[in-house]
Amino acid sequence: MSLTGGVEQWAVDLRGEAHHPLAAGNGFVAVVDDDPFEPLRCNAYDLETGELEWRYSLEDGRRTGGATIAGGTVYFVATTGSRSGRVVGVGLEDGLERLSLDVDNPAIGYGPVPVPGGLFVPDGASSRLVTAEAFDGGSSAESDSTDSDSTETGTESEDTSPEDAESTGGSTAGDDDGGSTTDGDSSAADGSEASPDDSGWELPSLSVIESIVVISTSLASVLYGAVRVAARSAVDE
Questions:
Q1: Where is the Pyrrolo-quinoline quinone repeat domain (predicted)?
Q2: 3-state DSSP call for residue 58?
Q3: Which candidate, 100, 45, 53, places its Cα nearest to that of 78?
Q4: Which of 95, 48, 91 is nearest to 71 (CA)?
């Protein structure tokens, strides 16, 4: 609908459920609709006309946390089993799969968040965030933990490409559907290191403010550096 008058410009019917935020950018609107009994679908519509441009189906995908557009790619996380999931990147212009990366216990309260050098992907195990950097066919780079002595503040930035290490990411937020705390090592199934959030068990929301990823947990807030994974409790600042 129009921003000023609220007049409907176009409308489309969706199959199943679409209760997560849609993603808009580069003249497209991307919506991921999920159904527990049907393959998950990502639909891309023309922003001006509402015409369906393409549809991507993930046969074993069931639930999702919504889509994110960054650098000409639509990213989303989907559950593929009771304790398994996948982060998928689909070309915004053609709807072709560009990357696929398996993750454990995906948290589907929100979609991936673009940050300089990669994406923060919600991982439900121990409320972890796994960074998948340098997406070249779905490979994942290690993320080193660090104790930074400074923090940065600022206003919310626009969504940017995970390939652009000099820019800052956008933000998404939503209700987390779960993700209980578990003990053990913090390595992900794909071999990348995961940074555990020791201040809480759930991640209801996540946003990017300049180079800082701000995560609200059930007990406190934690700041994760966007370039390097760094967990610091907000109460210690």
A1: 6-105
A2: strand
A3: 100
A4: 91
**99 phi/psi in degrees, rounded to 5:** -155, 155
Q: What is the pLDDT of residues 23-55, one digit of tens each?
A: 898 999 998 887 777 888 889 999 999 999 999
| Total H helices, total E strands in the chain | 0, 17
> In terms of Cα–Cα distance, which of 109, 110, 114, 106 is closest to 89?
114
d(CA 8, CA 18) in angstroms, rounded, equals: 19
Torsion over CA: 6, 208, 87, 95 (sign): positive
Res. 214 pLDDT band, cuts 50 70 90:
low
Backbone angles phi, psi at 34, to 5 degrees: -125, 155
Eight-class DSSP state of 89 = E
Question: What six digits make up the tokens of 91?
Answer: 């070309």
8-state DSSP, 125:
G
Give me the residues paired with residue 222 across strands. 215, 233
Express each pLDDT in 80-136 by its tens digit. Answer: 877 778 888 999 999 999 988 887 776 666 677 776 667 777 666 544 555 544 344
Backbone dihedral angles phi then psi of residue 109, each to the nearest 5 degrees: -75, -20
Spell out the domains of the chain, with CATH numbers in brackets: 23-133+142-236 (2.40.128.630)
| Helix/strand/coil for 186 | coil
Give the per-residue pLDDT at 116: 65
At 6, is the secondary structure helix, strand, or coil? coil
Which of 143, 147, 172 is CA-nearest to residue 158?
172
Which residue(s) pair with 75 in the sheet?
68, 89
